[in-house]
Amino acid sequence: MGESAVSDSLVPRNRKVMAKVDKSASFKKTQKGKSSNKTTISAKAESKKVKKVHQKHGKKYREAAVKIDRLKQYSLNEAVLLVKETSPVKFDASVEIHVKLGIDPRQADQQIRGTVAMPHGTGKKVRVIAFCDEVQAKSAKEAGAIEAGAETLIDKIVSGWLDFDVAVATPEMMRNMGKIAKTLGTRGLMPNPKAGTVTPDPIKVVKELLAGRIEYRNDQYGIVHCAVGKVSFAANQIEDNVRALFKALVESRPTKSKRTYVQSVALTSTMGPGIKLDPKEIR
To answer: Are the beta carbons of 68 and 273 closer than 8 angstroms?
Structure first.
């Protein structure tokens, strides 16, 4: 076979190879284009996400947030002064503390729940009722309860009245509250021994609640959220309240909690930016 014949016989095969090469190059180019488009789309999505985050808060919040170093852990005094300065609302905002604890919230023996008397109150007006006998009812009303009594008060709640924030009851009254247990329980209003609202001395508890006693408990993430005053409070009043709560939390530490107990602390005002605190400094 001559040289020209051999050359001619290789033409179809070479054409197939070249076609495959062209297809491969075209495919790679297409994939590269797709990849480039994905990158562009991803960048646009990220840009929109960032823009959305910036739009999440108003101008006053952003102006207040600029004054706070997000990486710094402030002393309690510094944080209190900052939280008063950075409140972005016109009304007298609440000051709140959020404490992340080193507990396992799924374990019943690591749940945190208790009460603490705030030295200067929280600035919030609390409406208290008392389930007790008629003799104690009169004294409870004199102490500041908006309603007090036995069956009459139970019937009033059965009819739909729920204009109160905390309910106190004597141990003897608890057995009569079955028909309102679900109504109060779903709203977190049912008297509870752990919260100190089931007591043989309801008059004393009513006075303590009105003076600023609060209940604290961890949420499903092991964080305790509490109000510790108002922006209008003096700085030292907020500091005293924070220290009182912190002391109660430390004393409530579960024996089975082996991790660092107080992991992080933040102070904030209503709708204001969070301020990180140094937990060691609070003690």
So the answer is: yes
